[in-house]
From TrEMBL:
Residues 5-120 form the MTTase N-terminal domain. Belongs to the methylthiotransferase family. MiaB subfamily. InterPro entries: Elp3/MiaA/NifB-like_rSAM, Methylthiotransferase, Methylthiotransferase_CS, Methylthiotransferase_N, Methylthiotransferase_N_sf, MiaB_methiolase, rSAM, rSAM_horseshoe. Its cofactor is [4Fe-4S] cluster. It comes from Geobacter benzoatilyticus. It holds the Pfam family UPF0004. Keywords: 4Fe-4S, Cytoplasm, Iron, Iron-sulfur, Metal-binding, S-adenosyl-L-methionine, Transferase, tRNA processing. GO terms for molecular function: tRNA-2-methylthio-N(6)-dimethylallyladenosine(37) synthase activity. This is tRNA-2-methylthio-N(6)-dimethylallyladenosine synthase. [4Fe-4S] cluster 1 binds at residues 14, 50, 83. Catalyzes the methylthiolation of N6-(dimethylallyl)adenosine (i(6)A), leading to the formation of 2-methylthio-N6-(dimethylallyl)adenosine (ms(2)i(6)A) at position 37 in tRNAs that read codons beginning with uridine. Its main location: cytoplasm. Its EC number is 2.8.4.3.
Length: 441
């Protein structure tokens, strides 16, 4: 009889968690677990969680609730990792009695041992932050993901303490991974067929600054750009306060660096930006945007916006709308402010009512929808270079992305997956573009 065990991972939250889930799968392979897309067949279910907003946290509890009955029907282990795990620790074991193990954002490496204990019936929570030396040695590295594009973690944690944000509390202090290791991982990925890498961190712009002798982020980009066979480089996320002239110059100097940047402003009014502890004014933000557009005139900019931050007046809010229009984002993620445990903003006066926040969110979204549609329509009849990533869900088209990070669907031969091709855009939709393969020149 085979002793193969099946592992199902459900991932909530950001790319950090997606990357960590890949790492979990790799670690548990060593324990005899093979990934399955079918939770109902799994011997071990791991839920990787997000607590950035209250809603995200609630989603985790309702998701875990589903397994209560199932646990009575058949034997399997249930584990929770990620940011809610970090935030709640052993309290989660109490609150969810059918849970077998809880591991925090610094404790992935303990998972094999914890799973072994859980197999013996021992319930455990491990959420201690670990020292920097150990952290440096434990950066998630994914070598066998396959595919055309790959995320590569360059830093973890965050020291910015934006007043609304729980990330510094659940991910810990900022730490930059050794550049030699990053470059080595990218080389390995490229040798395995990867054509595009996205360098990942909560605030990549401050990469290396606190590590004596380390490259700056711009220096790292230049080194990676020199790797033969790699076609494209992206990065996310950038904090506007830390984007340096040296980094902006990379958009002019490095052809492999894609013409897209995610540069969250969060708000358009100086009063709100100050209370958010963002470290820049509206004018400083707009100056950085102008410098980026000067370095790469076709750069596409996306961002994040929070509405209903404590004390946000109608006038503050109108300044967010006008900032969006000035920048002309291709797209944004927009959120209603959600108070988070431990954060400074949670105790600020001037709560905006839910009704008001929802109404502002709708106005932000309506404006962005309009700008996105107009932006997408502007690409019709242009020719875009697209890196083909795979077959579309419908199965009759290929899909890929432009340098500006727009998704393009087009009919062509599947053998083109992994290639850079020229596509003439024929239609713009709210979330993607449609095109046709341009004839070979
Ligand atoms: N490190 C990244 C993003 C982290 S979280 C950055 O700084 O850009 C992703 C987004 O969630 C943030 O940019 C912010 O817009 C939003 N967000 C974070 N905390 C929030 C909160 N308490 N309420 C509402 N939105 C929040
Ligand atoms: Fe949160 Fe601010 Fe850090 Fe981004 S930069 S993770 S919003 S504290
Ligand atoms: Fe969520 Fe944690 Fe990412 S809180 S957004 S999964 S860092």
């Amino acid at each position: 009889m085979s002793d193969e065990k099946l592992l199902y991972i459900e991932t909530f939250g950001c790319q950090m968690n997606v990357n960590d889930s890949e790492k979990v799968a790799a670690l548990l392979k060593g324990e005899g677990y093979t990934p399955t897309p079918d939770a109902s067949a799994a011997d071990l279910i791991i839920v990787n969680t997000c607590s950035v907003r209250e809603k995200a946290e609630h989603k985790v509890y309702s998701y875990l609730g589903r397994f209560r009955g199932l646990k009575r029907e058949r034997r399997f282990l249930l584990g929770v990792g990620g940011c809610v795990a970090q935030q709640e620790g052993a309290r989660l074991l109490k609150r969810v009695p059918w849970l077998d193990l809880v591991f925090g954002t610094h404790n992935l490496h303990l998972l094999p041992e914890m799973v072994r204990s859980a197999e013996q019936g021992k319930r455990r929570a491990a959420v201690d932050f670990i020292d920097n030396e150990t952290r440096l040695d434990l950066f998630p590295r994914v070598d066998d993901g396959g595919g055309v594009t790959r995320f590569v973690t360059v830093m973890q944690g965050c020291d910015n303490f934006c007043s609304y944000c729980i990330v510094p509390y659940v991910r810990g202090r900022e730490i930059s991974r050794r550049s030699a290791e990053i470059i080595d991982e990218v080389r390995g990925a490229v040798a395995g067929g990867v054509r595009e890498v996205t360098l990942l961190g909560q605030n990549v712009n401050s990469y290396g600054l606190k590590m004596p002798g380390e490259l700056t982020f711009a220096g790292l980009l230049r080194e990676i750009s020199a790797i033969d066979g790699l076609e494209r480089i992206r990065f996310t996320t950038s904090h506007p306060k830390d984007i340096s002239p040296e980094l902006i110059a990379c958009f002019a100097e490095l052809p492999k660096l894609c013409g897209h940047i995610h540069l969250p402003a969060q708000a358009g009014s100086d009063a709100i930006l100050a209370r958010m502890n963002r470290g820049y004014t509206r004018q400083e933000y707009l100056q950085k945007v102008a410098a980026l557009k000067a370095a790469r005139p076709d750069i596409l900019i996306t961002g994040d916006v929070i509405v209903g931050f404590p004390g946000e007046t109608e006038d503050d809010f109108l300044q967010t709308l006008s900032l969006m229009e000035e920048v002309r984002y291709t797209d944004i993620f927009s959120f209603a402010y959600s108070p988070r445990p431990e954060t400074a903003a949670a105790s600020l006066p001037g709560r905006v009512t839910r009704k008001e926040a929802t109404e502002r969110l709708e106005r932000v979204q309506a404006l962005q929808r309009e700008m996105t549609i107009e932006r997408h329509a502007g690409f019709v009849d242009t020719c875009q270079q697209v890196l083909v990533e795979g077959m579309s869900k419908r199965g009759d088209q290929l899909y890929g992305r432009t340098g500006g990070n727009l998704i393009v669907n087009f009919a062509a031969d599947p053998s083109l997956v992994g290639s850079l091709v020229d596509v003439r855009i024929t239609r713009g939709f709210p979330n993607s573009l449609l095109g046709e393969l341009a004839p070979m020149q």
